[in-house]
Amino acid sequence: MGAGHSHPLYRATSSPVHALPPHCKIAAVFCFVLAVVATPREALWAFALYALLLAGVAAAARVPAGFLLRRLLVEVPFVAFALLLPFVVPGPRVTVLGLHLGQEGLWGAWNILAKGTLGVAASVLLAATTELRALLLGLQRLRLPSLLVQIAAFMLRYGEVVTDEMRRMRIARESRGFTARGVRHWGVLAKSAGALFIRSYERGERVHLAMVSRGYTGTMPVIQEVTATGAQWARAAALPLAALAVTLTAWAAHP
Amino acid sequence: MTPPPSLQVSGLAFAYPDGHQALFGVDLTIGRGERVALLGPNGAGKTTLVLHLNGILGGGAGSVHVAGLPVEKAHLAEVRRRVGIVFQDPDDQLFMPTVREDVAFGPAAAGLRGAELEERVQEALERVGMAGFADRPPHHLSFGQRRRVAVATVLAMRPEILVLDEPSSNLDPASRRELADVLRSLDVTVLMVTHDLPYALELCERSVILSGGVIAADAPTGELLCDDELMRAHRLELPFGFDPRSVAAPARR
Amino acid sequence: MHVPDGFIDAPVSLGTGAVAAASVAVCLRGARRELSDAQGTDRTAPLAGLVAAFVFAVQMLNFPVAAGTSGHLLGGALAAILVGPYTGVLCISVVLLMQGVLFADGGLTALGVNITDMAVVTTVVAYAVFRLLVKVLPRRRRAVPAAAFAAALVSVPAAACAFTLIYALGGTTDVPLGQVFTAMVGVHVLIGIGEAVITALTVSAVMAVRPDLVHGARGLARPLELRTADGQVTTATPATAPAPAATPRRSVRPLLAGGLAAAVVLAGFVSYYASTSPDGLEKVAHDKGIDRTTKEHAAKDSPLADYQVKDVSDSRLSGGLAGVIGVGATLAAGTGVFLVVRRRDRAADRATDRSPDPAGTA
């Protein structure tokens, strides 16, 4: 486990995808997912092509398939929802393996599963090939309000510090023989949460003092900036452009 | 013409908005190149005094001058460059994602860019022996390393005076000694707030005791530590078995 | 409950994205006010960052329920009450953004949906309910956790309502909305109870130690006693008294906004009950659907066969109608309540002018 530079999803290798500037990658992934979401669900071949495109990126980024597939688990609650759809959605029915399933519901389930899976896979590829710091710089470069990026940066910097404090509180509780077993113990846990809030807030005040002491006046000095050449943009744009072509073809062929 | 003292505090009094008065007229002058320990019991007003030195607190009576420059709203940026405060918890001080960016923060806020900025960062990290850690995230360093980087973040601003809040707290003996070596090697004025009396004796030729919001004593560190009555009166205690008489006085640079 | 890509269609995703962006922009301004200190210094970045880190961490704190199951805090209501609504929205949004980008938790195109739903609606509804109750309840310390409880309780199903609304606009599958609604709200009322208990306990824990940090209770703080310095005359110019950020001048706008939000929430409940009780419209639709259901009785082996029976193609109509009626009724009721509250507040204000300590020393 480690945050800071790397984060749980980051895979430290070098590859052409890792080398791309972060803002190009974020923009590319976002446009790709948008194209996927806009595809008519009946165009099964289009989704196969998207999957192939992502597989190509994964291969170029040296991200193993197993890693990618494991991370798809994040979707599970919605898979459950999708699986219910064929049963609850009204409309004409078809019989599959002895089950009477709604056609509309089947399409709906397929739609959610396919697009959701592609979306998660694309996000995982982005996270796996981009360092934490680079992600923040990329978001800043993409004109996200700088205050928002600062907040995100502080959150990531202190996320681990605060989590660590929480862990120490748990150890302190358990060392005194306390284990939360049910609703009766919520009061104790909530007291910890309250103490954690106070510590976090007070730390925020101290951090602010430390910043002001070093000349902070409300705006972060620009220390590092990411830039991209035309060639890098072109390489990053390959994915969303291919996806756009697929989407347009799918709509053209759509009855 | 002699240069003005690094720090000149005169008649400083301050009360918090809630009515609690912390300082009752502090007078303190620190010459250029001196290393001074600020001792005192908890609640004596040490932190309040420190926060006055770079103008975070103000609005009471009296005045503070840093190398001749009055601490006033008009000069705050320059005052904060000249006074480098190293806070007690390095996690509060190191708020940027990487060591390099953290050390660069101060000079960059002062307007430095590019190669000049990079040079400052390298120089500051070398002076604390952390040059090889520039690209590491701060929380992957040991506590002692973080404390040294915290010193570097302030050194990068080339301060007139370095103010350290409990520099030896939570350090293991080796890190404590390493930090002492770093501090001894620096060519800046140092004001060190500490409860670690042997550390004060080791590093600072002069000590002042802040007690009840006023300077209660100001003398060579060895003399102060040997004055049992004075020490008791201000709740200062030496560690068990430590005899300041048996230790050689700190060497002047 | 992070919505993935493909759940909501592209136009509505972009639309909610715009809503989310606008909300975050507004909150960036508002948070500066909420987080500035007595001198008015801008401390937004470090403080909001630390609060976001706190929310991120506290979502990992497990609250055991029973038999190995456990829940955790969502944190929208808690953040709103502890640090104020603007900062609350901002912090939850940042947490969602980072979860989407770093952990692939919640789709990138669904970010707008997630922020609108979980950050904006939850936080704003919670804060509106909280402020309303703090004003209505007796001005005691104990009123704060009670109000926090109700705020969190309402905020979670409110988010479910908002989600259903978004789904009605841009859901990729035509699920009978009545069912989505019933299921979503039903489940989230349960979650809301847990959230409410934890939020109230946490708020009261903070109240016990640092009541000044609880943004929603700043108006209730007793004036600090000033001790004079012993003998010595100091010319300290006491910095401007901490601005009572939580007791803004009673302008009509927040009142209206709060009223509307409360009305929408209440409307949710009203239409919820309206849609579960078989009213006339639904009964007709039910009868119409029977021919289809009887045909499918052959499929009794399917464990979920029951779900189909209630299916009514017109449930959207009935739900919608109920909703409209509900909003109308609650708006009327809400306006009435607010008028009463305002009058009471004005009376209280006049009383304040006469006696300096309206909170009493109890």
Automatic annotation (TrEMBL), chain A:
Its main location: membrane. It is a multi-pass membrane protein. Signal peptide: none annotated. The keyword Cell membrane applies. Pfam families: CbiQ. It is found in: Cell membrane. The chain crosses the membrane at residues 20-38, 44-65, 72-89, 109-130. InterPro entries: ABC/ECF_trnsptr_transmembrane, ECF_CbiQ, ECF_transporter_component. Keywords: Cell membrane, Membrane, Transmembrane, Transmembrane helix. GO terms for cellular component: ATP-binding cassette (ABC) transporter complex. The keyword Nuclease does not apply. GO terms for biological process: cobalt ion transport. This is Cobalt ECF transporter T component CbiQ. It comes from Streptomyces mashuensis.
UniProtKB/TrEMBL annotation, chain B:
It is a peripheral membrane protein. Keywords: ATP-binding, Cell membrane, Membrane, Nucleotide-binding, Translocase, Transport. It comes from the Bacteria. Gene3D superfamilies: P-loop containing nucleotide triphosphate hydrolases (3.40.50.300). SMART domains: AAA. GO terms for cellular component: ATP-binding cassette (ABC) transporter complex. Residues 7-237 form the ABC transporter domain. GO terms for biological process: cobalt ion transport. GO terms for molecular function: ATP binding; ATP hydrolysis activity; ATPase-coupled transmembrane transporter activity. InterPro entries: AAA+_ATPase, ABC_transporter-like_ATP-bd, ABC_transporter-like_CS, ABC_transpr_CbiO/EcfA_su, Co_trans_ATP-bd, ECF_ABC_transporter_ATP-bd, P-loop_NTPase. Its main location: membrane. It is found in: Cell membrane. Belongs to the ABC transporter superfamily. NCBIfam families: cbiO. Part of an ABC transporter complex. Responsible for energy coupling to the transport system. Probably part of an ABC transporter complex. Responsible for energy coupling to the transport system. This is ABC transporter ATP-binding protein. It comes from Streptomyces mashuensis.
From TrEMBL, chain C:
It is found in: Cell membrane. InterPro entries: CbiM/NikMN, PDGLE_dom. Its main location: membrane. This is PDGLE domain-containing protein. Keywords: Cell membrane, Membrane, Transmembrane, Transmembrane helix, Transport. It is a multi-pass membrane protein. Residues 254-343 form the PDGLE domain. PANTHER family: METAL TRANSPORT PROTEIN HI_1621-RELATED. GO terms for biological process: transition metal ion transport. The chain crosses the membrane at residues 43-61, 73-98, 110-134, 146-169, 181-209, 255-274, 320-341. GO terms for cellular component: plasma membrane.
